[in-house]
Amino acid sequence: MDPFHITSKKVLTLVMVIDKDNQKILLGYKKRGFGAHLWNGFGGKVEPGETVRQGALRELQEEAGITVDDHKIQKAGLLLFLFENDPMGLECHVYKAYEYHGEIRECEEMRPQWFDIKDIPYEQMWEDDKIWLPELLKGQDPFYGRIYLKRKPLEVEGEEEGKVTVAAAAPSSTSNVSLTMVTVPFTTAQPKSGPFALFDHRLDLNLSKIPKEIAFDGTIASYED
Ligand SMILES: CNc1ncnc2c1ncn2[C@@H]1O[C@H](COP(=O)(O)OP(=O)(O)OP(=O)(O)O)[C@@H](O)[C@H]1O
């Protein structure tokens, strides 16, 4: 049995806000939940009754306090995250925006901060971000990626430098009930890049050749712009 076979998916969004003039990117430090203690774009689960784009705009507003005009948020890609021995995949719709309204502010889930594009903290981000984010920044989008992840062992060797409370990866991905908060040590030797390690990936930079409906693993991803 293929350990990466999925039978269902959750639909998620991820918005990257970029200041082209100053060559900066807005990232948020996730304070709790799935991906806690990692820097990432802003996003979350699409709620019933909203389009993927509406979900992306809502999450950006909730997590960073800012809004983007509907026509100014551009689809940058579609990523399918597959976790070993987890039948639930995550279909992540990635957007980019170069303009926004409002004041950036912190909330109880995310702490936003601008980073120089040349100093993106990839070592404290999901390991897959370093696969696709450089392509987005180079304008090599839209892309379609399949990202295979394996749970990291919780035990770490080496000198202990600190403790971090993370959501231990339980089989059901983002479902809150399946996450257990545990405190694990981290060291300088261990990248603080979350509970999953990148196992394999395929990134296709030629999304325009892929039909609007992409069939994979017996399910259909709707690709809206
Ligand atoms: C596996 N590799 C990954 N690489 C890069 N980004 C990843 C990711 N896996 C999940 N993400 C993003 O992390 C956020 C989780 O969102 P998440 O907190 O679960 O959603 P939401 O805010 O709805 O949750 P609440 O239930 O309200 O806490 C969401 O933007 C999603 O796109």
TrEMBL record:
Its cofactor is Mg(2+). Gene3D superfamilies: Nucleoside Triphosphate Pyrophosphohydrolase (3.90.79.10). The keyword DNA repair does not apply. It catalyses: 8-oxo-dGTP + H2O = 8-oxo-dGMP + diphosphate + H(+); N(6)-methyl-dATP + H2O = N(6)-methyl-dAMP + diphosphate + H(+); 2-oxo-ATP + H2O = 2-oxo-AMP + diphosphate + H(+); O(6)-methyl-dGTP + H2O = O(6)-methyl-dGMP + diphosphate + H(+). It is found in: Cytoplasm; Nucleus. GO terms for cellular component: cytoplasm; nucleus. CDD domains: NUDIX_MTH1_Nudt1. The keyword Iron-sulfur does not apply. Keywords: Cytoplasm, Hydrolase, Magnesium, Metal-binding, Nucleus, RNA-binding. GO terms for molecular function: 8-oxo-7,8-dihydroguanosine triphosphate pyrophosphatase activity; dATP diphosphatase activity; metal ion binding; RNA binding. Residues 8-138 form the Nudix hydrolase domain. Its EC number is 3.6.1.56. Oxidized purine nucleoside triphosphate hydrolase which is a prominent sanitizer of the oxidized nucleotide pool. Catalyzes the hydrolysis of 2-oxo-dATP (2-hydroxy-dATP) into 2-oxo-dAMP. Also has a significant hydrolase activity toward 2-oxo-ATP, 8-oxo-dGTP and 8-oxo-dATP. Through the hydrolysis of oxidized purine nucleoside triphosphates, prevents their incorporation into DNA and the subsequent transversions A:T to C:G and G:C to T:A. Also catalyzes the hydrolysis of methylated purine nucleoside triphosphate preventing their integration into DNA. Monomer. PANTHER family: 7,8-DIHYDRO-8-OXOGUANINE TRIPHOSPHATASE, OXIDIZED PURINE NUCLEOSIDE TRIPHOSPHATE HYDROLASE. This is Oxidized purine nucleoside triphosphate hydrolase. It comes from Podila minutissima.
